[in-house]
């Protein structure tokens, strides 16, 4: 009897359901029992447990904080959010850069130009085979060693500094009039999208092209600019100042952040390149031939015919690569970038000593981030799925 | 079905197994024939393997003293190098018997981790080391400086406290290990590096140009360093505590590694009690009565261990200072054996 066949016999079906319920109860009981056992053992060994450490004062400093944080008044919970934001920022930037670079390298590897194809192949083969930690240390030391010391910073023409403490740029300070500019930008984007949809409908209906490129660009850029001028230029810049020890003020980009983002992007791009190459090769060559027979050049063929069909094959392994990148960002611990693991599972764990709770929370957070990412990617995958007639 | 039942029962056993009570550490160590000691592994003068792989250092010598007291053989120790991240968990879980890793005694560590500190083997304080080129002569001039520090240590907290209480701005760069923090300081990433001042002298020797760096005079915190054991095993705790006290008593009474054999014939009742010629003190901590004799014979007294590892007989050349005996104005005070 095959397992996929639903038995018509109600007794057998009830038996199977009862067995599954029993299994669920046993598993649930095991998990509950494990928790109670752990709590018991911790209490017996006089090790503090519970989550009241969340509201205790942190007392330590964090080098990159995207939200307000102070060593004296902020709590461990606040430190957790700072670390989480840092992880999300570096993972987000890493995903964007890795995708751009990966797609480029993947398509380059299929190029008819012998040199380009071999270079891309060499890149993929070498980067894939070196452990990420070593690459990360290489980028960090390369970034630090080549940048000049503070006293001999490179002064940027826009008014910033570049040295081995980081890249310091003028920070935009927004006045209240900015709401109008943001609203104008949103209206401009909606107008541009509407224009494009109207142009496409018109081309499909009448065959006449409607060149709306310049109009949409004007609405996206021009409307906000007009609002900016009307609101009285509500934007000042906080310039970074060189002081005795450091650069004070301005927007600071840490070398640790740059090194981590670069290492993650370069490493994951090598894997994404192979995924993209596999997806493109999976599209039947008849599609390319047909497109060429219609007179499309290779760029247009790729963009309009091949890649949309390849996305169906690319999206699931691409999701795995994104999840890998997010988890690999925890290597920040090796170079001192204050991500979630460094701040929470490092400093907070050591100061409070509550390893079980802290690690459980960290694992739950990574699990949540990964699940949300794969959910979004699966939604996107469903949109690109081929609908069979 | 049978396979499921087997798997479930094994899982249940694992989930519900109670943790063994920790009151049998001495028996376990004797049965094993070896003491397992948590050490630093990278701190010169305190816990560092030499190029031949032999462990040396002040904290290492303490563990060897405990092993000498138990086995009459200071080599029956296995050293486990630990980071600040796992040092307490290793002790809590039973992976090591005693932690001798320049660990600061604080209230939260003493009360919330299920661990106990057995005394202060080294009174230390936190200091700063800066590049000489910055022309800084005091820690109060470090407003706005970036400081490299190791994460999860009392150092990190004291640093933030000090800068806050003096209304100075701080940019701290934290690293998982002291090695990385020192390397970053050396490469110019930070203006200063902070740790216990005993560690500063050790780390300075490893910099590219030790003479281009100066240690600032301020000591900004109290760092009483000492060995740590698990709660719940009073005999073991007493044993570790009295190993340290025996070394102090020996120095106070003038018993050294070279003269301990003659001191066995001493008429001084304190010496006779210490070395086990009179009294049954060894049995009260589960050892033979010549436990202190063994310690001094193999390791020496407190002063000898200090000078050999971190004092004038070592590259660090740290002065006794607060770690002198109370008779010389320091804080090391031996509790009497009687």
Which terms would index this structure?
heterodimer, A: 389 residues, alpha+beta, MetI-like fold, 4-stranded antiparallel β-sheet, two-stranded antiparallel sheet, 6% strand, B: 338 residues, alpha/beta, D-Maltodextrin-Binding Protein, domain 2, 5-stranded mixed β-sheet, 13 helices, 13 strands, 17% strand, globular
What's the CATH class of the domain at 83-152 and 253-384 in chain A, please?
Mainly Alpha
- So how many helices of chain B? 13
Which stretches of chain B are low in confidence, meaning pLDDT under 50 for 5 or more residues running? none
Order of helices and strands of chain B: HHEEEHEHEHEEEEHEHEHEEHHHHH
Major sheet of chain B: 6 strands, mixed
Set out the fold topology.
The complex is a heterodimer of chains A (389) and B (338).
Chain A: H1 10-44, H2 76-109, H3 114-128, H4 132-146, E1 154-155, E2 161-163, E3 166-169, E4 171-174, H5 178-206, H6 213-230, E5 235-238, E6 241-242, E7 247-248, E8 251-253, H7 255-282, H8 285-293, H9 298-328, H10 340-352, H11 355-384
Chain B: H1 2-16, H2 25-32, E1 35-39, E2 48-49, E3 55-56, H3 58-71, E4 77-81, H4 87-93, E5 98-104, H5 107-112, E6 115-117, E7 122-124, E8 126-131, E9 146-150, H6 154-165, E10 171-175, H7 178-186, E11 192-196, H8 197-204, E12 213-215, E13 223-230, H9 234-253, H10 260-263, H11 269-275, H12 291-298, H13 302-309
Parallel strand pairs in B: 1-4, 1-5, 9-10, 9-11
Antiparallel strand pairs in B: 2-3, 5-13, 6-13, 7-13, 8-11, 8-12
